[in-house]
């Protein structure tokens, strides 16, 4: 089946501290796809945004004819079929069905399991609550939620370190969607200074390679008002 590459500009509704949004941005950049970025605060529940996505979740991509594609994994599949299939050796999905299964497993690990056990709690408590009004949940951070998330980080980082130490890239011999998913989540925690890189040297080396990819540079320029990143965040060599 011939895939036609649309020339239209896409629009991405995102938040810089959303791992799914970062994942989508990395894929767009890897495939050299220009997109207009609109920062969205999903808790604000803007009428215009709810008309596009009644669930008020991120990310949302307005694709050809301004049709919405909703959710990080769904957007990745759409971009893979419409752009990635044309990239040959730059495609982020392997040819083998079993290799594809491993990529999808790891994407689910970092965008679902890791998100539910670590990322979303730290982002909500340390970032979103600072931006929210009291009427929609803004308040002081919940120290119990933060401690629970921090407890979970260590085991996840050990697993990431094992993957990085035993494989060239997380799912095998070349960078795939799994590396983009992991880096999207890890980069948020790194921004917040939540990772002790001395404990996981293989993961550190993998992340340094990810940070050095041209697709990653726009993420390193992200800044949250009132919350500066750790000093090494934008340093390619830590």
Question: Would you kindly provide a written description of the structure presented here, covering whatever features stand out?
Answer:
With 238 residues, the protein is an alpha+beta fold. It folds into two domains: 10-90, 3-Layer(aba) Sandwich (Glutaredoxin), CATH 3.40.30.10; 97-220, Glutathione S-transferase Yfyf (Class Pi), Chain A, domain 2 (Up-down Bundle). Helix content is 50%, strand content 7%. It has helices at 19-30, 47-52, 72-82, 97-131, 143-166, 177-191, 201-211, 217-220, and strands at residues 10-14, 35-39, 60-62, 68-70. A hairpin with a 5-residue loop joins strand 3 and strand 4. The model has no long low-confidence stretch (mean pLDDT 95). Its EC number is 2.5.1.18.
Radius of gyration: 18 Å
Number of domains: 2
Shape: globular
| CATH-defined fold name of the largest domain | Glutathione S-transferase Yfyf (Class Pi), Chain A, domain 2
Number of strands: 4
Strand order of the largest sheet: 2-1-3-4
What is the annotated CATH architecture of the largest domain? Up-down Bundle
* Percent of sequence in beta strands: 5-15%
Distance between the termini: 44 Å
Oligomeric organization of the protein chains: single chain
- Total helical segments: 8
């Amino acid at each position: 089946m011939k895939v036609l590459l649309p020339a239209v500009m896409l629009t991405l509704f995102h938040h810089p501290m959303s791992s799914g949004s970062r994942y989508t941005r990395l894929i767009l950049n890897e495939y050299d796809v220009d997109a207009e970025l609109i920062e969205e605060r999903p808790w604000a529940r803007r009428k215009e945004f709810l008309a596009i996505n009644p669930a008020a979740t991120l990310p949302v991509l307005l694709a050809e004819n301004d049709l919405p594609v909703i959710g990080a994994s769904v957007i990745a599949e759409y971009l893979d079929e419409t752009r990635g299939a044309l990239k040959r050796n730059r495609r982020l999905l392997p040819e083998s069905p079993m290799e594809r299964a491993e990529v999808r497993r790891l994407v689910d690990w970092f965008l679902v399991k890791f998100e539910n056990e670590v990322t979303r709690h730290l982002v909500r408590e340390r970032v979103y609550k600072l931006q929210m009004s009291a009427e929609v949940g803004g308040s002081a951070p919940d120290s119990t939620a933060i401690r629970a998330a921090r407890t979970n980080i260590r085991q996840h980082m050990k697993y990431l370190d094992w993957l990085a130490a035993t494989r060239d890239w997380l799912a095998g011999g070349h960078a795939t969607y799994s590396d983009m998913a992991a880096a999207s989540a890890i980069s948020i925690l790194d921004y917040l200074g939540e990772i002790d890189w001395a404990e996981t040297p293989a993961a550190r080396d993998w992340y340094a390679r990810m940070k050095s990819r041209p697709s990653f540079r726009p993420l390193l320029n992200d800044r949250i008002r009132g919350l500066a990143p750790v000093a090494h965040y934008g340093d390619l060599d830590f």
